[in-house]
Structures are given as C-alpha cells and as structure tokens.
Amino acid sequence: MRTCTVDEGRRGFLKKSSAIAALYLTPSILVKAMSIDKVVPVTVAKEKLSLTINGKAYNLQVDIRSSLLDLLREEIGLTGTKKGCDMGQCGACIVHVDGKRLNSCLSLAVDNQDAKVTTIEGLATEKQLHPMQEAFIKHDSMQCGYCTSGQIMSAITCIRGGHANSRQEIKDYMEGNICRCGAYQNIVDAIIDVKQSGKTV
Amino acid sequence: MFEPTNHFNIVADDERADAAEKVTGRAKFTADHHIDNIAYGLFVTSTIAKGTITNLDSSKALQAPGVLDVIYYKNCPNIPGYNALTPDNKRNNFEWKGLKVLNDNIVRFFGQPIALVVADSFENALAAVKLVKAEYATEAFDTNFNEARLVESKTKLAGKYKRGNPKAYLNAPFFIEAEYNTPIEVHNPMEMHSSIAIWEGDDKLTLYDKSQGPKGTQSTIARTFGIPEKNVRVITEFVGGAFGNALRSWLHVPAACIAAKKLNRPVKVLLTRPQMFSLVGYRPQSWQKIGIGADKTGKLLGISHEAISNTSRYEDFREGITDASRFLYKCENVDTEYKLLPLDLSTPTWMRGPGETTGCFALESALDELSYQLKMDPIDLRIVNYTETHQENKLPWSANNVKDCYAAGKEKIGWKNRPKKPGSLKEKGWLVGYGMGGGIFGANKGSATVKAILKEDGSLVLQSAVSDMGPGTTTAMGIIAAESLQMPTSRIKFMLGDSSLPPGPTQGGSGTTSTLGSAVNLICETLKQVIKELGIQHFAAFKGLQITDLEVKNELLIDKKNQGSQISIVELLKLAGKPSIEITKESNGNNPQEIKYAFCSFSVHFVKILVHPKTGEMKLQKVITTGDAGKIISENTARSQMLGGVVGGIGMAFKEGLEINHATGEIANASFGEYLVPRHTDIPETEIWFVNKPDPFINSIGAKGIGEIAMIGFAAAVANAVYNATGKRVRDLPITPEKLGFSKA
Questions:
Q1: DSSP string for residues in A155-182
Q2: Any B CB within 8 A of A26 CB
Q3: Which of A181, B110, B420, B623 could cross-link with A143 by S-S, CB 3.0 to 4.6 Å?
Q4: Which domains are seen in chain B, by residue range?
Q5: In this complex, is the C-beta atom of A3 within 8 Å of any C-beta atom belonging to chain B?
Q6: What pLDDT, in 10s, does the model give residues B628-672?
Q7: Are the C-beta atoms of residues B244 and B441 closer than 8 Å to each other?
C-alpha cells in the first residue's frame, strides 16, 4: 500500500508555493491549515505564460493561482484531462510536460513557461488513434471513462520509460492512477499488449 | 401486453459503444460543459457538528476579487419546495426531502454547507471561501456509533421478521453466535459531483448534473422550484461513476439552481474531494449479530440476524442488511431485527450491493464459522441448505443455477488444495488460505419507454432518458437491437442522458439491462413489423405476402422462401416516400410471472490468499467470481462490471473505512491519501465466470442484473480465506494485519 508515486509534481509544487506570497494557491489542502485572519484580499495577479499544448503555441495571461489543470480545462477548453481530487492523489489529471507525466493539479500554470504539454486530446491524429487508446478499447480498460485519460497518459510513459517489463512493474508504476470502477486488470492487459506489439508510443 | 421473447444467441460485436469517446477525452462529463458567462459556486462548510450559526460574516469575501455573491440563510431566496405549506396553506406534498441547503442557520453535521460563494472564476471562488467566517452556538453531539448503539433508547426499530421459532439456533447441536462490524464506506466515484444551472426565463431551467436518473432529477427539481416538469431539462450524458451516490439530488443541485436564479447567470457548483466524503451519501456503519445453528448433517435449524446501521438526525435511511438471511438458504426458523441509529452525521445512501453486501458479510462469515464446527466443507454446507424456493415468499426461483457456480469456482480456484485445518498450509514461507462467499440480489423489471428512429441511410437511433454511469448500458442496448434487427452494432446509436428523451428508469439496483433491454427489444421487434408491413405495401415483389413470409436482416427485407427476392431498407424507405420511421413504445413493468416466481441474481466468490506469518501482510493471489444472472448480453462489459465489483470488494475487505474524530465530529480521513481505496497493486489475477443461461420468466430477453452481486459476498470470501490461512477470524472490516494480531512495530 503506498500513496501516489507520481514524483515530478508535488516537490516542484511545494517549492514554488512557498515562494509565492499570496495564500491563493489552488489546492485547498494547503490553505486549510492557515488562519483566515492573515488573508487580505488583493487584486488578482496575472502573469504572462507562453507554452505549447498539443503542438499549438499559446501566449496567455494567467491567474497566478491557477493550476495547469484548471488552465487546460477552464481557459483552453481541453476538458479531456479530468479533476479527480485536486490534490495529487488520484492521477485523473495526468498530462505529459516535456515528455514526463505530471499531475497537472499540482503544477501551477505559470510554472510551465515554454513547456511542451501533451494532453489526451493530443494523442490521436484525425484518422488514427494512438496505440494505447486502441489497446484500451480492445481490452475494455475502462467503465465510466473518467480516470481513463490519466490512465492512458501514465500508461504511455510507463512503456516509454521502460517500466513495463512485468505485470508487477506496470502495477507499481501505475499505482498513482485510481480507477474506482475497477478496470485495473484490463488496464494492465492493455499496457502489456502495446508493449508486446513493439509499436512506438 | 405481450412482449416477444428473444433469447438471442449473441453474435453482435460487444466492444464498448462509447469507448472511443472515452479514450480520446471527447466524452463530456458534467463539469466539462462550457457555458458562456459561467460563474463558479463553492460551498463554505460548517466547522462544528451541531448547533446554530449565530453570525456569518461574508463582508471580506464580498470585497474579494471576482466575488459575485455569498448566499446563505439570510439572503437565500424563497424556494417553493422548501415550504412545508403551499401558498393556500395546505400541506406541501412536494416538500424537499432532507436538509434544505442555505435555508436556515441550523448545523446538523460537521462539514454541512452553510454558504455558497459565487465568483467569476474557480480561483476567485476558492480564495473567497476562506474569507467567510461563521460564529456558532454549539450543542452536544453524537457521532460515535460504537458507543451510541449500546444505548437502546437511541435506536429505533426499522424492521422485524419471524417465521417458525425465534432464536431456534440456540437449541441446535451445532451453533455459532457472533458479532460483525462494518465501517462507513464512501462511494467516491472518480468524477466529483457538480451541477450547472442555467435559467432561461423565470420558469425554465437547463441543468447539467451528475445523475443516475435524469427523469428523477427533473422531477425533484421541478417540484422544488415549483415549475412544470417539461420546463426542466436535465443533461447527464456521461457519468463518471456513482455506485449509488447519484441516485438522488444532493444539496449542491438546488444550490446551483438557487444561485443561478438569484444572480441571473449560469452557475456551476463543484464539490471538492473532501466534500465528496460527507455531501453525497455513504454506506452506513453497521453492527450485526448472527446466531446460526445446524444438525450434524449441516441442515440449518435456525438463523437469527440482528442489525443496527446509522442514519442522520434529519432523515431515515434503511437498507436490506438482514434480507438475505431470510431467504437465501433453506431454514424453517428465522428471525431478524433491524434498527436505525440516528447520529449527527449526514444522511447515508445506497452504495453498490447496498445493505445486502453488509448483511452477506456477516451471514457468509457465520456459515463459514459453522462449517468448521461441523467439520464440513463450507461449499457442501451451502449445498445441503440449497433451496428451490425463495424462503421468505415461498415462490420457486425463476432460475437458480448457483450450484453450477459452486462447481465452476471450486474447480477454477483449486479448492481441492484448501487445507481442512486452518493455518496448516504454507507456500514459499507464506500461509495459504482458500475462502468463498455467496451473494444474492433481487432482480426486477420496471417500465421504460424507448423511441426508435430508423434513418434515411438505414442506420438506427434509439433514445431513452436513462444514464450510464459506467456498466455499459449503451453497449448492451446496442447489442439487443443488433440481435433483434440482425444488423451491426456500428450502425446503431443509443442516445441517453437527457430528460427530454422518452422516460427511462433510474440506473440502480441492478435493474437497467432488464428494464431498458426489454423496452429496446420491444421497440425493435415492433420496428421489424413496421418495416415488413411497409414492404408488403410498397414493394411489388412482396405483394400478397404475409408478415411471417418476410425477415429483416443486414438492413434488407427478405422473402424467406425466395432468398433472391429482397429490398434494402434504404430503398424501401425511398419507395414508400418516407425519410425515416419513428416509433415510440413503452414496455410496462407488469410481469404476470411475478406472482408465480421469485427473481434473483446470484454470485459466488472464491479467493486464494497468502498471509505472511511474521508480518500479517495479506496478498490475494487469485480471485474467481462466478455469477448467475440469466442471459449475459455483453460478455465484454459484463466481465468488466464483475471485475469492478471484485475491486469494490477488495476495498471493503482490506482498505476502506471512514474515520471520524469524535471530539469534533469531523471526518478525519477525507481524501484519497487517507481513505484508502484499491489501487493497481492491490488487484490479483481475477477470473469471471457466468452461468449465462436465460432466465425464462424475468423478461423478454432473459437477462438479470449483475451490478450488485458482483460485490455481495466478496468480503466474506476474503475473511473466510484469512481464517483458513491463519486460524484467525476477523469480524470487523476492514481486515488489517493489526486485527490478525500483528502490530505495526
């Protein structure tokens, strides 16, 4: 039993959070402990952010408190990435940033200057699904489909990073992605299938 | 009316119908909908468990950037459905059930919404929530189930049953008497609840909502706001899991409607994950006592089952905890007593497998305990007490193939290797145990209406106002239509998730496939008739033929005796001068067989567990789950649903349990970091096996539900395996190394 193994997000987030003075950080878990008396309403600060999402360049003015997840969903309109907890514990919001998986709820949007972000919407071409998407369909690796985006994004870096050499290794790597409907066995089957197919992910 | 029976030999493609939308992120769940000028609403929640709010200061929040309003009891508009009386002073029969959110200053549980902050962005709303300050007059409260249940006067009777002699087990030569405890468990679907309310005028509302029943939500909201049902449109196209917690409209639904109306602007109310632990129901905590006795052959002589489960102070929630004990096994002397214990908590609700899961944990554990006293194989004990009739209503089962489940599971799990003496088998240094447990759940068929639209291009659209929280309703319905019309599933689209479609059932209680599937079968069979009539009327080659001379297959209308004579349905529509055929039909819930037969689905779970003798670490090595639920429409999605039930059962057996700080009444583990749910590494190799024989009497398609039986009885199978491995009986869920006598240090 372990908690989320997605490593890149939380440390980076915690470091950054102490640097920004306002208490307006998105994950409420951090704010909860602080006294509300210290909070002084301020004008919302916005910062410039340039980044590439699914191959498209964006130049934005971003609320400094906004998470990458909320930026994608509420501002860019890419709602394929899901919010499952907003505190880095479930993996529904996983996207790729510069080729690595990241819990986008734990990453401040402004922390992603010049980053290359790939979301679930960026995997398939108009005519061709990504091999992992195809395998998820073939193995019925979903039920409600809500955690699916995050599972697929993790599954891809699982193979890319060389963590798909056994069922156990795959499970260890995928531990941060909760599926409450219980499609776990079929998800692992899909990853093994893609790995064995030798297809480029 | 007569509904033609179709026990298909299913050949249709059963790939999940909406899989492509789900793997590409195109599937739109409630919070994914983008609405112009949307405002964001978040709840401020109480920080005491009981009392009254003496002052609520929203001034700082109202000055914060982007904040549009803070709605609470002092400025909440009058909601017609909140009033006990109608304007002409009669009792309001449509009064909102339960807590009337934002309406009064009474606090009934820790974390209760006391205000709704509405702002122009999520960030602004979240920041302002912290700025609202409440002062309270506190009152003594009670959240401690284990202490309160001991005080008789605090409980109230919720159900009593007796046949034969009460407490007859006490006179049996072999009996056991034991107490079992299950904690509060929380559904926690991955999609957090949200509602988007958009008023289009004073009495017209569009509501995007996470709901297991768009028609139910439509009706509730229409009554609450005093507007005609037809003026409320509820959209719930994709539901990101629910497991029972979207069966009713919780507080955030009226809150979104109230805020949108007050601000004259669309409002999206979002729950946070911690709020998902207290604002959308949970499986209640339970205490149970079972007494069960048998003669030396294993024949049951008496079953006594007592249960207490908690509810809130402001609503009674009861479920079928003691039900299975009354009818699953042959026994002449049975008595059950069920009590509710109101506590200062929010109201519980049905969670997957509902009360039967709780009850069967106790019953199936108790049978296992009895089997050791009898020195009898626990499967044999169940076979000895197998009954051909439902023991409570005395009707014969419409179908019961549970013995096939025993046989298949026994073989597949390797039951022959099960040690007769607990704690006596080791593999590679680990203790090995085998266990099994059974489940039962009532099967039913309600009414549903489906509209069929056969389009100009020959493809078929079916519509009904139901929702699909994940089991694969669209897939199963597509298959039923494909089998009836002998056309590929890829040419059929099942539309749901919109209350403006023809009325369909709420998805819950394992009834959707039976109810909606019957309606789909009926509409497709009717459509075939219409096509045939059209052929005889308009296609020269079919002139003079009877309906029975024709068949519909591969989008063609064919003369059965003269196979060369056929017309494509597309051509036929042209010939008849019809751009499409649209028909709507209701399959009503009346089943004349109901008075003759008892309808139930059955499951039997088998597990093999390894327990480390030094640390108590437990590893499920293998799971076999077998089900008898009539005809399986989609083996693909049915298998997935059963796998999901097993995962739910693993959570119940090993991990899940809400912790409450009884000093404050606050939930102490309201996050996925602290409320443990099954993750990838918790899942063993799992095999699903179905009897897959049509139930001849339940409905026209022979299918019964599997959503609940997938989980019912599983936790007992685990507890029984743990005992078999270690000789230690755990009667309190979840099962942890500590409860096996191993300490963390």
A1: HHHHHHTT--SSHHHHHHHGGG---SS-
A2: yes
A3: A181
A4: 19-26+446-590 (3.30.365.10), 33-139+188-277 (3.30.365.10), 286-444+595-740 (3.30.365.10)
A5: yes
A6: 999 999 999 999 999 999 999 999 999 999 999 999 999 999 999
A7: no
For residue A151, the chain B residue with the least C-alpha distance is B23
State which residue of chain A sits closest to B190, comparing Cα positions.
Answer: A84
Q: How many CB atoms lie within 10 A of CB B247?
A: 23
| B99 in Cβ contact with B25 (< 8 Å) | no
What's the pTM?
0.94
User: How many Å lie between the alpha carbon of A162 and the closest alpha carbon of chain B?
Assistant: 18
Residue B335 C-alpha, separation from nearest chain A C-alpha, in angstroms: 36
Query: What structural domains does chain A harbor?
Result: 8-122 (3.10.20.30), 131-197 (1.10.150.120)
How do the residues of chain A divide into helix, strand and coil, expressed in percent and rounded to 5?
A: 40, 15, 45
> CB-based burial of residue B118 (10 Å sphere; 0-12 exposed, 13-18 middle, 19+ buried)?
buried
Instruction: Say whether B25 and A149 touch across the interface (CB within 8 A).
Output: yes
Q: Could you tell me the strand order of the sheet in which B550-553 lies?
A: B550-553, B556-559, B566-568
Kindly list the distances between the CA atom of residue B709 and the CA atoms of A111, B50, B284, B384, B627, in Å, as whole numbers in the listed order. Answer: 47, 38, 19, 22, 8
Contact residues, chain B, for A117 at CB < 8 Å: none
Q: Which of residues 467-506 of B touch A (CB under 8 A)?
A: 469-472
Decide if A87 touches B, using CB distance below 8 A.
yes
- Chain A positions in Cβ-Cβ contact with residue B711 (cut-off 8 Å): none
pLDDT digits (tens, 9 = 90+) for B370-381: 999 999 999 999
pLDDT of residue A26: 40
| CB contacts, 8 Å: A65 with chain B | 123, 126-127
Size of interface A-B (CB pairs under 8 A): 219
- Predicted confidence at residue B742, as pLDDT, reads 80
Are the CB atoms for A31 and A23 separated by under 8 Å?
A: yes
The Cα–Cα gap between B703 and B415 comes to 29
First to last CA, chain B: 67
CA distances from B375 to B174, B316, B420 (A): 11, 42, 8
Q: What local confidence, expressed as pLDDT, does residue A19 receive?
A: 39
**H-helix segments, B464-510:** 473-485
Say if A142 is an interface residue toward chain B (CB within 8 Å): yes
Cβ distance of A146 and B15 shorter than 8 Å: no
Q: Helix, strand or coil for residue A15?
A: helix
Phi, psi of A173 (to 5 degrees): -70, -35
ipTM score: 0.97
Chain A interface test: which of B29, B135, B190 (most A C-beta within 10 Å): B190
Provide, as residue numbers in chain B, all residues whose Cβ is less than 8 Å from the Cβ of A79: 25, 28-29, 31-32, 34
A154 lies within 8 A of chain B by CB: no
Cβ–Cβ under 8 Å, residues B279 and B188 = no
